[in-house]
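Protein Entry — a single chain follows
Fields — amino acid sequence, structure tokens
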Amino acid sequence: MKITQLETFFVKPRWMFLKVSTDEGLVGWGEPIVEGRARTVAMAIEELHPLLIGQDPRRIEHLWQQMYRGTFYRGGPILVSAISGIEQALWDIKGKALNVPVYDLLGGSCRTRIRMYTHCGGASPQDATMQAKGLRVKGYTAVKTGIDGPVRAIDSMEFIDKTVTRIAAIRQELGRGVDLAVDFHGRLSPAMSKRLIPLLEPFQPMFIEEPCLPENVPALAAITASTTIPIATGERLFTRWGFREVLERQAAAVLQPDVCHAGGIFETRKIAAMAETYYVSIAPHNPLGPISLAACLQVDACTPNFLVQEHPGLSNRWDLGHGFLKTPFNIQEGYIETPQGPGLGIDVNEDAVRERAYPGDWDTPRLLQTDDHSVADW
């Protein structure tokens, strides 16, 4: 079996899908993208063509090493995201060739269903409470909300009071039977996180995500040591090398590698194995589309230290595959049944993908407006 073609598709709402074709008619799908840099990732995939065309797609580890180590420079979001999507597609092909799910090739399933969580928005406590109630009624056992930005390096009592009041309202609506995670989005300075986090401890969050930006691991470790709330990070880290120091410094209780950014399915499973030796849980990051979710579920199924799986929770359910997959994913009482189909366990509606394809000119970075704020990240 040989790889004959790689095709990228920019599709609504702002995703990029990859199709890898072979000379035996088997195709695999992946989702390689860096939000705001989709066209750049597409070019990186094109630059990898000489390493892939004519190669056996089943030699996944060999091809991964070739792509990652094939030039002087390694790592980073662009290259590793391109590799991630390609790697997902290669596993999809291999699973289809052997007629087994990918997780069966990585040790077999540890669970019969995958626990899911989604996002609770709402700028005011009233709006947030209404959204939280809707998610609780749908049967979710875990929900995540975020901290709105921008945030000053040392912000006001008004900001703190507003944030705590909103989190308190969501917790009251969810009750004690539904886990609540809080995403700081790296928007707070370490000093501001240390001020705010103790005020959230009475609400016992499942975890606080990115209490500061991930570049300074000792700063993250200091925050972790200052609270009883589990700290999560990892969506902006790439490959197992990017997670090494976080684990060695015990800077997080939950790692959140993104299967579309961190190196793909097998690399994420390797990161999870590293984390297991430190008694750290895995909750894969996933703000993207249905192919990303399919890849995440394969990792979740075979990972013993898996905690919970994110999905965006779009109202049109495109992130669950409606309009893209012939059989979309179905969440029942906050869980997705472990997929049973071969490869990624999905059947992509290619006609729908091509119909929704864009030229890619919508994907541009946002201009950061700081005015009088010291903004860590938007």
